[in-house]
Amino acid sequence: MIEKFLICLFSFSTTCLGAQNKLYEIIELGDLQVAYYDTVLYDSSQKYDQFGYEGPAPIFTQVWYPYQGNSTQYAPDVFEAFQKIEVPCALNKAYSYLKQEFDTTFVNYAFQSFKNGGRVSKLPVDFGKYTDFEVYELLKKTQTKSHKKAFRQVLDYPIIVYHHGAQGNSYENYLMAEYFASRGFVFISSVYNLAYENKDLGYYSEGFDFISMPKKTLEFARNLSAEPRIFFIGFSMGAQHGFLTLHDEIKIEGFISLETTLEFFNEDRYQERWPEIVEVIELHKDDYTLPIMMLANTRVRGIETSFPLFNQISNTPMIHVGSRNFFDHGSYASLYHMRYLLKDKVHQPDSLNSKSQLEYYAIHLELIEKYINSILMNTVFEQKSFEQDFDFRFFNTRKD
């Protein structure tokens, strides 16, 4: 562990855009106020030597949690504040490079990929007089429901560890973090990407063990409570890493997989593209003991023929959940819903489709919460209220 680093604070403007954040008209938060803080974990098993830093691999981490004090004297932070993680000076350049890559990746994925029409709507996205980065700058000023506060206590709440997708970041699902924190959960989200000079985001040096970093975050989570009850949520690559990691984790209460992308392929295809995941699942298919819920957009293929790789996991309660309506892969992360905020200010021909995706995202949050609470309370998961939106397959578990 690198000790006694001087903390460098990034400065930023807190000018807010508009009045009420339209996302919260659809995403219904709970009764508790939401606070968050930044920290940097270190993986001593991985060496990192970039941008003038030399030492254990840093894991930039943000923690959202319920706050019951008085926060009415000041406004919640704007979205841009999530990007201003407090880091030691020795890591300043590395994190600045990461942030720049995060910005570029977000604009490319959330804006430019829709220029010729998205998979939900065939209408090309045209922002009119605004460039993509101008729209992004507007979004940075939108207000959230999170208050940044120093962490001063052991938290006696169930804990969710979230793992982002490829080229993702710690705040890619901040709405999910706020949703669960406002309902009595601690939500930990770390960055598992590292910055390398002249390399694209998502690059790992040869021999790098990218599974050791999530394990370090799980270790951190266990120290936040005297008797922690921990859940793991992974999106895309994060869900893949969950299957690579959790077969030997005996103190995790449950695993929610948000579309690994392997659900839709047959053996010859996933053997070719993801041989390591295939090898681990086939080797440890009887070792997964934690309850698992897998979600995926099975609308085209159908739930009965999806998830072929995962059908062999037979020693634990598992639920396959397929969306009945189209749900874009990026829609599992709240960042990709943000441009809906600007529908009255910035020209967006597909705003109605954006709203439908956001509404479906909200239903996904409700589904995940109900599943987690059924585990916490040791009750049967009741899926009937969700059957108009999802198909379900149950393995080694009772259903309502």
Kindly list the characteristics that best describe this protein.
8 helices; 400 residues; two-stranded antiparallel sheet; disordered N terminus; alpha/beta
Whole-number mean pLDDT? 88
- Principal-axis shape equals globular
Query: Architecture, CATH level 2?
Result: 3-Layer(aba) Sandwich
Question: Might you state the CATH topology name?
Answer: Rossmann fold
**Unreliable parts:** 1-19
Order of helices and strands: EEEEHHEEHEHEHEHHEEHE
Extended strand count: 12
Number of domains: 1
Q: How does the major sheet shape up?
A: 10 strands, mixed
How many alpha or pi helices?
8
Cα separation of the termini: 48 Å
- For the record, the CATH class is Alpha Beta
Spatially, the strands of the biggest sheet line up as 5-2-3-7-6-8-9-10-11-12
The SS-based structural class is alpha/beta
Could you characterize the architecture of this molecule?
- The chain is an alpha/beta fold and 400 residues long.
- The protein has one domain (28-395): 3-Layer(aba) Sandwich (Rossmann fold), CATH 3.40.50.
- It is 25% helix and 20% strand.
- It contains 8 helices and 12 strands.
- It has helices at 92-110, 132-140, 174-181, 212-222, 237-245, 267-273, 275-284, 351-376; strands spanning 7-8, 33-50, 53-67, 87-88, 146-148, 159-163, 186-190, 230-235, 252-258, 292-296, 318-323, 390-395.
- The strands form 2 sheets. Strands 5-2-3-7-6-8-9-10-11-12 form a 10-stranded mixed beta sheet, sandwiched between helices. The protein has a two-stranded antiparallel ribbon with strand order 1-4.
- Strand 8 (230-235), helix 5 (237-245) and strand 9 form a beta-alpha-beta unit.
- The longest helix has 26 residues, at 351-376.
- The chain is globular.
- The N and C termini lie far apart (48 Å).
- The model is unreliable at 1-19 (pLDDT under 50).
